[in-house]
Write a sequence for this structure.
């Protein structure tokens, strides 16, 4: 199959980066922008996406649909796309690249199967592949996942994991359980230290005995709120993943709570592009403590 037109749902931070990489490979990239924010429209324009009117037009034109959206919207969006496929009498392959549990991926696969569409399970690890500079990894699995191989290159790698739907999602979930889970734990510890009045003591101790953790706090604590709102759902999907194999889901339910706290602060209204890069972790944590017991 030759991919001439790829649809991106939607041009957020990762969607823009992946779509721009695909556009750079000479493939037409389309998206739906009706009702979207000015920032989303700016991202789409910057990446060179072509706007189409609605989902029916999108599935009618696309050779492949890539879903790259917040995980809590993944299932509902897939249902909307499936309904549009039915109305448009068009059923292009659908690749769910979201941070979702394998159980969620299998439910979405069922939605697409009902309208005769090929489903590809996926998970993305790494930063967006802007300008071909990063080697963003797109893990994929499923009987038809080989369709994604044409997108390999220009800053991203397609990594095939076999025919089992859910396998790619499992890799993403367990990986993110460590990276984003650790960031939430370190931020929780730092916030607790501030609330208990022992932050400076612990900073001195961490500098001697846990210097890597302290450096990571300094780098991540001030910027996490910009992503926190999108990562709440991801932590919940990780909890579902763990529970599906009998591992306690409570670690990442707690991480979701921590990201809810960060999202509730004024810094939660920032995006990666508007973060105040002069703000220190000490400045940040004082605000986090103010919101600990807010309704």
């Amino acid at each position: 199959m030759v991919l001439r037109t790829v649809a991106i749902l939607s041009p957020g931070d990762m969607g823009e980066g992946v779509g721009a990489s695909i556009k750079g490979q000479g493939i037409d990239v389309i998206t739906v922008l009706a009702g979207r924010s000015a920032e989303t429209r700016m991202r789409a324009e910057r990446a060179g996406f072509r706007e189409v009117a609605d989902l029916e037009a999108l599935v009618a034109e696309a050779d492949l649909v890539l879903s790259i959206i917040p995980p809590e919207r993944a299932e509902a969006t897939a249902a909307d796309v499936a309904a549009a496929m039915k109305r448009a009498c068009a059923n292009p392959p659908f690749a769910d690249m979201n941070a979702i549990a394998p159980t969620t991926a299998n439910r979405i696969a069922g939605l697409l199967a009902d309208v005769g569409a090929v489903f590809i399970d996926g998970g993305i690890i790494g930063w967006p592949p802007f300008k071909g500079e990063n080697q963003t990894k797109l893990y994929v699995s499923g009987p038809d996942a080989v369709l994604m191989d044409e997108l390999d290159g220009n800053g991203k790698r397609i990594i095939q994991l076999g025919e089992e739907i859910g396998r790619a999602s499992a890799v993403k979930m367990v990986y993110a359980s460590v990276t984003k889970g650790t960031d939430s734990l370190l931020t929780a510890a730092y916030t607790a230290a501030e609330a208990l009045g022992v932050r400076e003591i612990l900073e001195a101790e961490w500098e001697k005995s846990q210097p890597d953790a302290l450096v990571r706090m300094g780098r991540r604590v001030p910027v996490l709120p910009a992503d926190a709102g999108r990562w709440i759902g991801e932590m919940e999907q990780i909890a579902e993943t763990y529970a599906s194999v009998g591992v306690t889901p409570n670690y990442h339910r707690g991480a979701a709570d921590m990201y809810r706290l960060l999202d509730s602060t004024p810094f939660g209204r920032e995006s990666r592009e508007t973060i105040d890069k002069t703000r220190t972790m000490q400045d940040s944590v004082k605000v986090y403590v103010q919101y600990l017991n807010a309704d």
